[in-house]
Structures are given as C-alpha cells and as structure tokens.
Amino acid sequence: MAVRTRSIRRSLGALAVALALAGGARAAGHAGEVDPRIGTGGDGHTFPGATVPFGMIQLSPDTAMPDFKHAYKWAAGYQYGDPTILGFSHTHFSGSGHSDLGDVLVMPVAGEAKLEPGEADKPGSGYRSRFSHASEVARAGYYAVTLEDYGVRAELTAGRRVGWHRYTFPAGKDAHVLLDLRPSIYDYPGKVLWASLRVHADGTVTGCRTTRGWAPGRELCFAMRFSQPMVSRELYDRESDAPYKGFRGPGNQPQDRDAQNGRALLGVFDFGALKQPLVAKVAISTVSEANAVANLDADGRGFDFDARRAEATAAWNKALASIDVDAPATQRTQFYTALYHAMLSPTLSMDSNGEYRGPDHQVHKADGFSFYSTWSLWDVYRAQQPLMVLLRPDLSSDFVNSLVAAREASPFGILPVWAYQGLETWCMIGYHAVPVIADAYVKGVRGFDAGRALEAMVASATYGPYGDLADYMKLGYVPIDKEPEGASKTLEYAYDDWSLAQMAKAMGQTKTAAEFERRAGNWKNAWDAATGFMRARKSDGKFREPFDPAAAGYGSDYTEGNAFQYSWYVPQDVAGLIGAMGGDARFVQKLDAVFDARVDPAHFKNVEDITGLIGWYAHGNEPSHHLAYLYDYAGAAWKTQERLKRIMDSQYAPRPDGLAGNDDLGQMSAWYVFTALGFYPVAPGSDQYAIGRPFLPRAVLHLAGGRTFTVTAAPLDDAHPYVGSVTLDGKPLDRVYLRHGEIVQGGELHFTMQAQPNREWGRAAQARPLSMSAYP
C-alpha cells in the first residue's frame, strides 16, 4: 500500500495507543502478569502470540521467514527489532535453536492486495506491513497489533486446536484476507513439496501442505471459516510466477476460484467494505482436511472472539495458579512469564477424534490419553519436565504415554529424540526420554503402563545404530574416530543409563537395574586424570590428540560445549567426580576457575548456542545449567548461593532481550522457576532437589490433592544474599537437599537469610545430596 499522509499516520498512532491501553488492562489472575514479549529479542527465540497451555495452536506474528542460511534469529518467526509483520501463522516453537513450522500464514489487507511479501525496507513493495510496538498488546492467550500500512487492527486468541483472528478494517476500504501456503520458518526453495487449497460451498476454506523441512515429509492440514460471507475469491498457483524464493510463473492471474493444487499456493478472499470486524477461525490437523474440519466443528463453534479470549485467559489463570508468589511487580512479571514459557511445550498433537500422526507417518489413535509432541528432550529433561512432575503430575502421565506411544509407532522401535507433530528430527544427542519417564515414575506419577515404559527405555538404550551405542555397549565409551562428539555422548548415555536403573530398581527389576547401574559408571572412561578434563577416546582406548579444552562444537569432543563445561556432566555421581578431581577443596577450586575465568565471548562466535557467559559457564546453553548447584555436593553450599545470585541478576530481565539464550521449549524458564523457589533437580530420576537459595519472599505451591507447600525467606534483599539457616515444618534442616515426597505432602520451608555466608551449613558428608558413589 502507498505511504500514507502524515495526518493519517498521526490519527492512526493515537488510535493504536488507545487500543493498546484498553487491551492492556491487567486481567484478574496471574495471566495478566505475563509478558510474552520477554525473550522475543536477542537469542531467546520466543514468540509473542496467542496460545493456551500445551495447546496445538501457537498463533503469532511473523516478522520474517528468511532462508535457512540466515534463519537462526527467527527460529520463532518473530524478532522484536524488526519493523514489519509478514502475517500471522498458526504453528511456532518457543525458544528453539532450530526451527520449522510457520504454517498457514494469514494477512489482513485493506485496499489493494499484493501477492508477494515484498521487502521490509521498501514500504508498499508487498503485502507485509509496518507496525509499532506502541500498538502491540501481548498477554497470555491474546495478541493485538495495528498494521500501519492498512490501518487494520489485528487481534489474535487461541483455543486448544483453533486459532481465532479478529480484524477491524478502516471504514470505506475493501477488506481482504490473504492466505499464503508458501512461506515457512527456516525456508528454502522447494521446501513445500505439495499443497492443496479449496473453497467449499459453505465458504469453508481447507487445504494441506507437505514440506521437506526439519521433519521430512511433514503434512499439515487446516480448515478456516469467516464470520462474513466472501464477496469473491481468487486462488493462485505461483510456482512458476515471479519472485518468491526463486519461483517463476504466468503472472498474477488466478488459476481457479474453487480449488488449486501445486507447490506455491496463495488465496485472496474478498469481503468488500465491512461495517463490523471480521472474525476468522482456523483449525489444524496433522492427519487430514476432514479432521481439521472436525476440529473446527468441535472446538470452534460460533464467532464470539471475546468469549474465546476470556476462555484462553481463564485457561492461563488456572495453569499459572499452581504457584502464588509475593514479590515486587517486576519480579512477578519475570516469574509468571517464566512459568508461562515452561507451560507451552510439549504441544497437543492429537485431533478431537483421538487420531494423530506417528513417527512412521501413519495415523494412530490414542487410547485413554492425549497425545503430545514437540519434544526438545536434550533440554527439557533437566528442569522443565521435572517442574511438570511437581506441578502437573496428571499431565506428566499423558506425556509419558505419548512418549511410549511414539516409540511403539517408531520404525526403529525407540523413544523420541527431538520430535514434533509426531515426527522425528534426530536432533541433539542422548536418549533423554528415558530420564523424563524415570523421573515421573520415581516421583510417584502413575497412569501409564510401567512395564511398557521400561521396555521402551531399554530398547532405546540398546539400539546399537543410534549414536554408536553399539560401541558404547562394547567399549564403555563412544569412540571419537567412529562417532563425533564422543565425550559428550559417553557422559550423556551414562546419565541416561543411571536414570533407567532408578526406575527399574523402583519397579523391582533388579537384573535390569544392576546392568544399567553398571553402565552408569561409564563416565569414568571419559575422565582424563592427567589433564583434569573429560575427553573422547579413540577405538584403541587412547585419548584423541591434540587436545584443547577450549575447543567447542561439532568436530570437537563435545556437543555445543567444551571441556570446561562438559567435564562436570556427571549428575548421577557428583561424589564420584569429586573423588576423581582430588576431593572437596580441589573440586571447589576447579569449579571456581570455571566461573571466574576471563573469556572473550568471541571465542564462541562459530557456536551460536553458547551464550550467557560467566567465565566458561554458559547459562544460555543447557550443559551448564546444573553447575552452580554442584558446590552443594562438596560442602560449600554458600558458594552455590553466591553463584546463583550472579546468574539470576545477569541472565534474566523483564524485557524482550531478557533471556541469555534460547529458552529451549521452557528449559531456561523452568531453571528460573526452580531457582527462584530455592531448589533444583540436578539429577532427574532421583527424588532429591539440591537446595540453592530463594529469590522470592514467599511462594505457595498448590499441589495435587489440594496440598500446599510454602517457601518463605527473610530478610530477603541484596544485603542478605546468603542462607543462614533453614527450617522444614518448623524443624531445623541441616541438609542441602529436599525430597520430592517432603514437598508434595505439603508443608513449609523457611530460609533465614544473612549478610555473611554460613560456611558450616551443609558441610557434613551426610548433609549433601546423594550420588552413586555415596549410596548407603
């Protein structure tokens, strides 16, 4: 659209501010304390749009969908610093370091409808529009913005399977809705293998597209309805047309008004000059168009946008009510936004009739559970899934059932590694669905077949072709001359083995428990006493030379890390690691050296995921997340408290660039939630949490069975950063760990804070969290 006059812009700006103020009024409950724009700048990779807890729909603005060579910062489709909006699509990852999705892109247009996105720095060159953050409203379950080039106010909300749009067009302008099936996050020419688009007699628009993206051969279907009848419509196949991602074509003439098939489909739906807002509702399905229509019928009745927004807000208020905190407003925003981000994934990936797409690309039907996918397991097993075990054990049983069902549909017979919409990507390392299941079972979650789950865990841990598990089982380590990143894989496999052993032990499967407890000790095969680091060995048993402990990333011994970060990855046996490093004092000295080192961030310029540096410690990447808590295991709990204070102060902030690195489907945020409460699951699969220090004056956890667990701290301020003493239900707590059962049975944990460290609290051997080498 042509550039508007200054007076029109002035009026539009005033309207946008008024709408923002009206829409921004705080809703009752914690939903109103969430700011979804936290993490949308920098490398947080979160999205600001509308969704509900663990919902199938993530309806959000996309500011860019660049080609795959430049896609990293747009992994969620939106970057806070961008000046234009391309449109609103219905599927997004929250905080991933890789991406895909951005399905079913919709853009409201007033006046002339252009058929190409255009350039962000050339206003009017395409259908994208400029916008201002002053006109944005982002809340849990709701997003609104004014598209300046059209004068259109766009509002979004969501249900579990349906995304809702409300567009208010300027008076006297023809209203159009453009539907583009070409763009995709992490885009490249030819990514769309095939698509279909058709308009039914009742005005319902349906379609599907198949892409060869991160999950090859992914199919997604949709169904869309409008609150007003169309005046006309045009459907285009632009594959041979001018300039979209290399496509060439016959021009702008529509090929058909009712149905179209091809690889570059576009629809423009015309509504004339409207006297009231236009509401559109969109349902998706990984199975079929028919299922998308059924989802729309089941979950998308009527066109009452405000009622649907109220339902989304209510869903978030209910979810976030699992924890009530007393804290200053800014800290409450940080806390509830972190809890919100921790409740976005995994996502519902099942239709209203129970059908879902499995990793075999076939259609399956859930029996007695809801199927969830979007599993960044290398990340979320650490804190995000343990947080759900604590707060939502009912959902944890669905999550475990989903993992087991995916394994049983897998052509390889193993649990998911990094899956979404039911399909596997094989991204990252380890078999970390195993600790997710083990942690749930050990902490009392039921509602799934434990025998089938253990069978799935053993199958994953013994599948030789995966990540050279064959050599790992034979040699006790992953040889670097046969498999890249052998040190990291050896260490992560050993931890996963230990978690499997814990579940087998809890089930009375002593033979399986003994076998995997033995394998859990394989971490020792990566330990090099001569250098004091974990290293990769070759098939002949020798460590690979030359060795540089600062070397990181693919081609090194490590996955997204280096020796300074990965040499601490023995969560199952920290006591054993302390012994290997020469005892408590040497361990603490070496850990101090990690945090206190002077490291130029440019050192990791070619490893984009390593961010949030404090010395060699990299809070923006998961292998570092447990490090600050390791002092607890060496009798220096006061140092854990000291390090946590610096991390919380420097790595989180209530602003768009307020996350130090990828939120990774809620892991970064779950770390914040646990740490703010005062404890953390260093070794999921254990029933213990290492105690750090609280960052909230008061927090009340509302747990299953109507029980509450209250955490209080006083005096809590910057002048009193250390724990002086702790009581549990009024009795002194001399140990630096909590048991899961102590929390879920309800009670009160109180911290007395002080100005100077208490170097004696938690120093005794029996006061420390348990490890393999310290079992009674």
Please explain how this structure is put together:
Residues 1-27 form the signal peptide. InterPro entries: 6-hairpin_glycosidase_sf, GH-type_carb-bd, GH92_a_mannosidase_put, GH92_N, Glyco_hydro_92, PNGase. The chain is an alpha+beta fold. The protein has a 9-stranded antiparallel sheet with strand order 6-7-8-9-17-13-12-11-15. Strands 18-32-33-37-34-35 form a 6-stranded mixed sheet. A 4-stranded antiparallel sheet has the order 4-10-16-14, with no helix packed on it. Helix 7 packs across helix 8 (433-442) and helix 11 packs antiparallel against helix 12 (510-520). The termini are far apart. Residues 1-27 and 241-251 have low confidence and may be disordered.
Summarize the structure in short:
This protein is an alpha+beta fold and 776 residues long. Helix content is 26%, strand content 22%. Among the domains are: 6-319, Beta-galactosidase, Chain A, domain 5 (Distorted Sandwich); 324-350 and 612-776, GH92 mannosidase fold (2-Layer Sandwich).
SSE topology:
Elements lengths: L5 H18 L36 E3 L21 E2 L1 E3 L15 E6 L18 E2 L6 E3 L2 E6 L4 E7 L3 E7 L5 E7 L11 E8 L5 E8 L3 E11 L5 E6 L21 E4 L2 E9 L4 E8 L3 H11 L5 H16 L2 E4 L2 H13 L5 E2 L6 E3 L5 E3 L6 E2 L1 E2 H4 L3 H8 L1 H17 L8 E3 L2 E2 L8 H10 L7 H12 L7 H7 L10 H21 L3 H11 L6 E2 L4 E2 L28 H4 L7 H7 L3 H13 L16 E2 L2 E2 L18 H15 L15 H11 L1 E2 L7 E4 L6 E5 L5 E7 L7 E7 L2 E2 L4 E3 H5 L2 E8 L22
Parallel strand pairs: 33-37
Antiparallel strand pairs: 1-3, 2-5, 4-10, 6-7, 7-8, 8-9, 9-17, 10-16, 11-12, 11-15, 12-13, 13-17, 14-16, 18-32, 19-22, 20-21, 23-24, 24-25, 26-27, 28-29, 30-31, 31-36, 32-33, 34-35, 34-37
Helix pairs in contact: 4-17, 6-7, 7-8, 8-9, 8-11, 9-11, 11-12
